Amino acid sequence: MRVSIRKYSDKPLSDSLLNDLLEKSFRASNTGNMQTYSVIVTRSEEKKKALAPFHFNQPMICGAPVVLTFCADFYRFSQWCKARNAEPCYNNFLSFISATIDTTIVAQTFAMLAEEAGLGICYLGTTNYMASEISEVLQLPELVVPITTITVGYPAETPEPTDRLPASGLIHQETYKEVDIDALYAPKEALPEMKQFVKDNNKETLAQVFTDIRYNKTNNEAFSKKLWEALKQQGFVK
Amino acid sequence: MRVSIRKYSDKPLSDSLLNDLLEKSFRASNTGNMQTYSVIVTRSEEKKKALAPFHFNQPMICGAPVVLTFCADFYRFSQWCKARNAEPCYNNFLSFISATIDTTIVAQTFAMLAEEAGLGICYLGTTNYMASEISEVLQLPELVVPITTITVGYPAETPEPTDRLPASGLIHQETYKEVDIDALYAPKEALPEMKQFVKDNNKETLAQVFTDIRYNKTNNEAFSKKLWEALKQQGFVK
Distance from the CA of A67 to the CA of which of A108, A150, A214, B137 falls in 20 to 30 A? Predict the structure, then answer.
């Protein structure tokens, strides 16, 4: 069963393997075959150190041989249009969402192919929080926005898989149905590590750890505004 | 080499295989292990017919044994919070983007596992155009938005793989670099089917087929507004 890998061995990840995996992931489905994505490869200590604070100094950034920033990219396609007597029209929200989905599809294809090749990966969701700062570090032009980041390398740990909700609660037949929340979340809430997590955070319930601490209203609203500003800065919205 | 499948055989796709593949795809990485996604399974002729016009009557909807609508879902998580004396705070843009990425990761994991199991899949990008109408057909509650749709079944065709840009143009070392647009797009533009495509559409260049017809400014701007209204309707943004 797959797990995220946050500690990497010293074994180097060759450019040829990396490029081969990336090229294969570009075979994934995409909208109109426009391939509206780019991948920025970070190997240098200098750039890792520059990125680290914008990923809240998660140790995977400096600990992994390679950091990949998967970006929604309508810049290249627009440059092609301009060079071919065509007027690009991709500075809008729909194009951003479409490129975001296609970028994520490539990222996950890469993740699965990398795991199949014996590598370990970890996603960094912090990319959406700090899109503007990351864009500056990576010198992204207009219509390019970082969507997600994957650290990759050979694993130096074998963590236990984390829990998942019973799949039946996430699959709906024909129309969306209300689920039995108590039954669905009871197994997760009963896990010793979750009980400890509630205790460590001085909360009454596990849900409060999320709403009051990990993904709280103040941060969510501030980072929503910040992400929107990043989309403006990169020219996707007005 | 993988290809999208748009024609499906009569061989039925069992619930047990489908549920097994979905359950496995829920193992994919996700933000804070909140699992902010749901999958709506459409098998009934009635619901396929109801969905079809909102996917511009693409024949895969009624031709596939199963249509899967992958939805960003902060409703279930919010219901859990409310039931646990916690105040959910996920009606914002950041949460929408985070759930969109996690939903897409699950969709692509499913796609790859399905292909490995001998099934064929096709993505429908129309989901983002008609999110509001699709939400009504599938009876999605607040904080649930359809992100992408996959049709799935056993293949009844073996199409040729479509072209891709040279991978080197999509991979940037350390920082984003300008690429040689002419060199990058020349192989695509030289394909006989692309030349025919330009001719059939009475255009001068392939790029014009995209900007003037397939993904044009009028549609992109209208559907951007419509998608934003759908996010409002589902309560993700104000």
Answer: A214
Q: Are B34 and A215 in contact (CB under 8 A)?
A: yes
Which chain A residue shows the shortest CA-CA distance from B205? A84
A124's tokens? 């960094």
A contacts of B181 (beta carbons < 8 Å):
76, 79-80, 83
Q: What is the pTM of this model?
A: 0.98
On whether both A120 and A187 belong to a single domain, the answer is: no
**Cβ-based contacts under 8 A for chains A and B:** 292
> Both tokens of residue A165?
């909700």
Q: Is residue B215 part of a domain?
A: no
Asked whether the predicted pLDDT for residue B1 surpasses 90, the reply is: no
Structural domain of residue B105, as residue ranges?
A: 15-160
pLDDT in tens, B60-98: 999 999 999 999 999 999 999 999 999 999 999 999 999
Cα of B1 to nearest chain A Cα, Å: 8
Token digits for B45?
Answer: 């002729």
* Residue A1 in this model has a pLDDT that exceeds 90: no
A191 and A128 together in one domain? no
- Give me the pLDDT at residue A224, please: 98
Dihedral over Cα of B47, B22, B39, B16: its sign: positive
Distance between B165 CA and the closest CA of chain A, angstroms: 8
Q: Which of A71, A109, A204 sits opposite B108 (nearest CB)?
A: A109
* Cross-strand partners of A67: A42, A151
